[in-house]
Amino acid sequence: MPRQAYAATPLAVLLLLLASTPLTLARHQPGDPLRAASWQKCLAYYAQDLAIDPDLLYAIVQTESAGHPWALGWSDQTGRRHSYAARRQEDAVAMLLRLLQTAPNVDIGIAQISSQHLGWLARHHQIQSRDLLEPCVNLYASSLILQTSIQKHGRTWRAVAGYNGSTAYISAVWKHFCQRAADAGCSSGRSTPPLPSTPLPLSWKISPGGRQLSFQRPHLEETATHTFDLLNVRALLVVTLALLCGGIGLFLILALGGRFVLLAVYIVREGLYMLRRQRAAHHRLTG
Fold first, then answer.
1. Which of 72-76, 216-220, 253-257 has the highest mean pLDDT?
2. % of residues, the chain, pLDDT over 70
3. pLDDT above 90 covers what percent of the chain?
4. 137 and 76 in one domain?
5. Per-residue pLDDT for 133 more than 90?
6. SS3 string of 247-274?
7. Same domain, 268 and 245
């Protein structure tokens, strides 16, 4: 019996290791909020493609969702406005799927992409509704919509109004734009929002005009994954060691169990043999 206890020790070690070791995966944990620095790289990239000031695109994001990647907004059947900011991406996906079934229109993600654009985004850019809960994909979609508005209205603030559908939207975006770009006319006595015909602030690095935006898949996945660090190596080594110990323990249990079975068979056989000998001796004495 002590040998059985020793053999079961590796299994106990396996259970303890699996219970106490926090395995860190290469994927970003869904419960953790995305850092602003991650999606701001994508924002700067698409602002450069649009040849607009990144602070302007940032102002649109702040106006729409205050920079929350899993924000949802919708109007019910009575026209009452509702908003929801999920703490986890899974919660946002579940809520989005319910809203798409019940609400006439849903604004999705960090730049509040309207569900009215879902058909166009799916047909021409292979972007589905739940993809818009990834900040960089959402910003890519917003750049496409803003690009369409610029092509229609020119490089003026009317294109920004076209992103939302109302000229009143200009003042809201201007307020957030001035908070980041105070030297763009905000601090020089110009407190009122620009007119719709006012030219847009240009990018600090203008890209070639008319270039088609492309979906940079490796660039977008950069924010959703982390590099393979030493903590992941440690986790894999612990799991490998635990599985090895468990395998050795299971082998010892099976091996020792087989020996006990053979011993029991031997004892039974010897007992039967001794019983036959005693019966034979008894018959000889009584005969």
1. 72-76
2. 72
3. 46
4. yes
5. yes
6. HHHHHHHHHHHHHHHHHHHHHHHHHHHH
7. yes
pLDDT at 216 over 90: no
Count up the domains in the chain and report the number.
2
| C-alpha–C-alpha distance, residues 73 and 81, integer Å | 7
Q: Is residue 241 domain-shared with residue 180, that is, in the same domain?
A: no
Residue 35, CB half-sphere, CA atoms under 13 Å: how many? 9
Query: Is 159 domain-assigned?
Result: yes
Q: How many of the other CB atoms lie within 10 Å of CB of 117?
A: 18
What mean pLDDT comes out for the span 104-110? 94
Could you tell me how far CA 226 lies from the centroid of its own chain?
A: 11
Residue 8: give the domain boundaries. Answer: 2-23+232-286
Domain final residue pick, 177, 204, 225: 225
Report if residue 30 sits inside a domain: no
The DSSP secondary-structure symbol of 52 reads B
Mean pLDDT of 180-188: 65
Q: What is the pLDDT of residues 135-146, one digit of tens each?
A: 999 999 999 999
Predicted TM-score (pTM) of the model is 0.60
Query: Do 66 and 136 lie in a common domain?
Result: yes
Number of CB atoms found within 10 A of residue 215's CB: 14
Contacts 24+ apart (CB under 8 A), 114-117: 117/141, 117/145
Per-residue pLDDT at 233: 62
What's the CA gap between 197 and 53, in Å, rounded? 17
Token look-up 């490796």 returns: 218
Same domain, 269 and 155: no
Q: Is residue 208 part of a domain?
A: yes
How crowded is residue 106: how many other Cβ atoms within 10 Å of its Cβ? 24
Find tokens 């099976």 and name the residue: 254
Q: Is residue 48 part of a domain?
A: yes
CA 16 – CA 32 distance, rounded (Å): 26
Pair of tokens at residue 150: 């610029």
Q: Which of 175, 192, 225 is the last residue of a domain?
A: 225
